[in-house]
Amino acid sequence: MPAIVLIGAQWGDEGKGKVTDQLGERVDYVVRYSGGNNAGHTVITPDGQKYALHLMPSGALSPNAVIVIGNGVVVDPKVLLSEIDGLAERGVDVSRLRISGDAHLIMPHHRALDRVVERYLGSSRIGTTGRGIGPAYGDKVARMGIRVQDLLDPGILRKKLELALREKNQVLFKVYNRKAIDVDATIEEYLEYAERLRPYIAETRVMLWDALDRGDTVLLEGAQATMLDMDHGTYPFVTSSNPTAGGACVGAGIPPTAITKVIAVSKAYTTRVGSGPFPTELFDDNGQHLRKVGHEYGTTTGRERRCGWFDAVVARYSCRLNGVTDLVITKLDVLTGLPTVPLCVGYEINGKRVDDMPMTQTDFHHATPIYEEHDGWWEDITKARTEAELPDNARRYIARIEEQPRLP
Ligand code: IMP
Ligand code: MG
């Protein structure tokens, strides 16, 4: 089995890590291809300890798999090193890590700008994770980014940082009234990271092509999710990269023809962190139920996640956009105990029924979900491992999701 892409079908936190675990030992390479330490997934180490990872793919714990941080990722070296140390302390072999020299670095001015810009936006803020993700990608696109490979050449590193800070310090100081960032201190700090990261930096593309030629299994693990995609999500309330399946090719350097499977993960309901439209959002006791029972608090920022019902329009959009071959539904047990479980099967927008994502964001903001009401169930399903073990009502609910047009 060659390249498999694993993506989130909603706004993130769908439980992609669990699916990676299930693919387990059949995976030879696990690759992160976009985003940075804005992501967060809780993993259980081999000795049973719970541990939150942000930059490393959740597949970092798959035994024997080579862990790859692809060119499409933005790397905060301090965070990466603390994850390397944290995993090593827990007995995980991190010598399997490879970082693309083409990945971009998150620098101190990116973190500073992320925070001040959000403050400046006030009620129009995106609700970012404040990790410097947007500014780092912004510099990448503006061709003033600093890459992982620049860590290996102190002369280049200094030249690029001086150039970037010549502008950014003006912005920080004159526009936002913040302290300028010191070039020397930053260089010193980053050269220390460089020494520690050096053994992991590699030409990851060639390595992955060779792996695919041998018939190894490469898992391209998405962070964030479809609706947070820069191009296809709810812009501007998105992250600054392409977490969708197409982004996997770009962010890992793998050709589209190598991909044989696209697995999408969706919760049995919906959550979202940060600002932006969310048609099926709940503000009542049902929303509280989902948040409480589903432990819907961000892994990275601890923020309360916004909660709502399953949205088949979003699911359909994700499945078509990503060419999904397999859809995994997680956290069905969170719905246990609700008298009725509504399923959004379409929207009403300006008095018209709509089954696909509307063209404009304004229409999406005004979308009123059309719900199909399903009877709930009270039986404990946490131990159920097969469909047959589910109560009839739970089975019917899942069947109705499966029956939605254009889902795999
Ligand atoms: P940024 O990626 O920090 O710039 O944040 C942009 C938007 O994406 C915000 O609404 C964040 O809450 C959201 N976001 C970023 N990463 C994740 C994630 O891993 N899970 C859920 N939401 C995320
Ligand atoms: Mg998460």
Low-confidence stretches: none
CATH topology (fold) name of the largest domain: Adenylosuccinate Synthetase, Chain A, domain 1
Approximate strand percentage: 15-25%
**Backbone shape:** globular
Work out the oligomeric state of the chains in this entry.
Answer: single chain
The Rg value, from CA coordinates, equals 22 Å
The strands making up the biggest β-sheet line up spatially as 9-7-5-2-10-1-11-15
What structural category do the secondary elements indicate? alpha/beta
GO molecular function: adenylosuccinate synthase activity; GTP binding; magnesium ion binding
Organism: Micromonospora craterilacus
Binding site for substrate: 299-305
Binding site for IMP: 13-16, 38-41, 129, 143, 224, 239, 303
Outline of this structure?
The protein is of the alpha/beta class and 408 residues long.
Which short descriptors sum up this protein?
Adenylosuccinate Synthetase, Chain A, domain 1, 3 domains, 408 residues, binds magnesium ion, 4-stranded mixed beta sheet, 19% strand, single chain, binds inosinic acid, 18 strands, alpha/beta, Adenylosuccinate Synthetase, Chain A, domain 3, 8-stranded parallel beta sheet, Adenylosuccinate Synthetase, subunit A, domain 2
